[in-house]
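User: For documentation purposes, I need each entry recorded in a consistent format: the amino acid sequence on its own, followed directly by the corresponding structure tokens. There are two entries in this batch. Please keep commentary to a minimum and don't merge the entries.

Assistant: Recorded as requested. Entry 1:
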Amino acid sequence: MWGSSPTSTKDARATILKSEAIKDPAAPIVVSFSSCGLNSILPEIIKPDISAPGVDILAAFSPVAPIMNSPDDERHVKYSLLSGTSMACPHAAAAAAYIRTFHPEWSPASIKSSLMTTAWPMDHTNDAPGEFAHGSGHINLVTAVDPGLVYEASEGDYIKLLCSFLDDVRVKLISGENIPCPKGFEEGSPKDFNYPSLAAVVEPVTSFTINFNRTVKNVGHANSTYEAKILPDSKVDIKVVPEVLSFKSLNEEKTFTVTVVGKGLPDGSYASSSLIWSDGTQ
């Protein structure tokens, strides 16, 4: 776009030229310098959660801060092109705020769920770490507003998750609640935390069977039916019970179990797949 500066003429004009759009089936991809998982603290929770634009982002810049770290560079600007996770984070935060305007009654967990379950799938070809690089996929605000189903989690659920790998003292410091951690059969497992993603650690080269328990809440249409679809992975067999969830009202909840069976994975490797609950409209 070219034109005269409005400070030099009262009749400022600009020309916008037609751009050329090129479809790249591999796009978007995660940039090489982006931080990747595994989650070193709790591998049962896949990190990152989701991907968002973070390369060459034009953003507001402190007018008193130098552009470069060089002491000889005294330039100051109001806007600058920046890259990194620090630029993807405000995109994700703004997306969450946008969804909140449509659903002010939703919890943070529901908003996160809507972003994760409606994300664009990303190509693994040039992205070796897979989900540990891009999470559930690339953020898609058009579909996130109406996810149909959400994975809800309360404050108590998060405290129970903390209790699965921290002692009572640390959990109380983090939560601010003087509630003792559950013991025995009530203790639960971090893999069963009602998170939109599912992950478990298995012994290498050893056959395994893992059960994930999840609950979804209907936030779409009162009368709706969802069918489970699995994107297969040759390394594991996956079964969902029940395969169909039927809802009669809004905010109704249904529970299901995902069973993953494998004959053993090489040390340091992983298998991944996707579970899609579809009502046939998307």
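Entry 2:
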Amino acid sequence: MALSVERAASRREYKVKDMSQADFGRLQIELAEVQMPALMSFRSVFGPSQPLKGARISGYLHMTPQTAVLIETLTALGAEVRWCSSNAFSTQDHAAAAIARDSAAVFAWKGETLQEYWWCIERALDWGPGSGPDLIVGDGGDAILLILEGIKAEEAYKKTGNLPDPASTNNPELQILLTIIRDGMQTDPKRYHKMKEGLVGVSEATATAVERLYGMQAHGTLLFPVINVNDCVTETKFQNLCGCRPSRPDGLLMAADVEIAGKVAVVCGYGVVGKDRAAALKEAGARVIVTEIDPICALQAVNEGIQVQTLEDVVSEADIFVVTAGSSKGIIMVDHMRKMKNNAIICNVGPFDNAIDMLGLETFPGVKRITFNPQTDRWVFPDTQSGVIVLAEGRLVNLGHATGHPCSVTSSCSFANHAMAQLELWMERDTGKYEKKVYVLPKHLDEKVAALHLGKLGAKLTKPNKEHAD
């Protein structure tokens, strides 16, 4: 794979699709800034003291205008930043170009291949020979996975003298991962150990990645402190109460030119994300059916007038399938797809790409792939000549086909929590406050994130007197 970094006029490294889009990206970033008051308050409150000066931050999070506001907040506080996207289709190329030109090293473009995706992650973690990031902004865990798999391979090499063998697995993604690690070890056989030793901590925003990190903590294998920003009150409460409910299902209309009214839509999962999508589909006129493994979530759906069935019960009836159970592997399998109506639409709004059996679909004997819009493919089975339409190759559709989350609530709170966690980890790096465990953001800092919004929103807090406070 012939990929190489380029350099901006500032000598900053980057790899983006089209630098000529930088001016348009800057306009979009300026619009996002207005809707993200906490991060703008961060700059005015903390910027003059440069508390992140000297910190090297690697970010692994969707490269959008909203993310750009986070990146430039971190640089405004003194950090150096290298960034990649946590999804092959989520980058908005104009935003990537603006950041690459103006403020940080970026390696991201919309429509990356699997090899390009992992190359970008490696570049974001690469701070030169023998060094890595001090801090990581995480959204899904792949950047951390590369470090952990690298450490495992280096330990095996030390014991056996054997480099990792990509042919030892039939998983295409793991083959790429092992190739990157193997090639790097030939230059520096302790690269990932050095990276781990220099890592002050990680802020992580994805529920499933957080659960994996809690699991590592329970087994004593967690190698660095983590602040779980997914469970901050300012993250969960605002997403639940105000959150991301779209006026139409994310990306569906743009991607497949489909009329939703009158269609049967199956939502796989009825957690927070599933409720939003079910409501959006109902609002657009669909008859919604939910599949669920949790009895409490199922009861909530029934009490809201939504039918609960198994996928097998409805697979041949439905027109649209929306997977929301991002933490589960193998929700819709190729055998399900073969039973679906001709041109049934399948998409995923969960954070990971293994809920839909894309490997089984891609390797099905004789299957034919027809691309009729970017990231919109019709897969035709040879025996029936019937096909299904898969959006964004089974990845997160609201970033593959639309522009992601609204910045005024979701991104403003979430990214401010990231910034606060990064600041907390860096400022406490020498105090021993954070061990190799998973923490939530301390309550007073969670409240600080909420408070940073208020002035820009025209709100004034009532100050309690001593009696009230007591």
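Summary note for entry 2:
Residues 240-248 have pLDDT under 50 and may be disordered.
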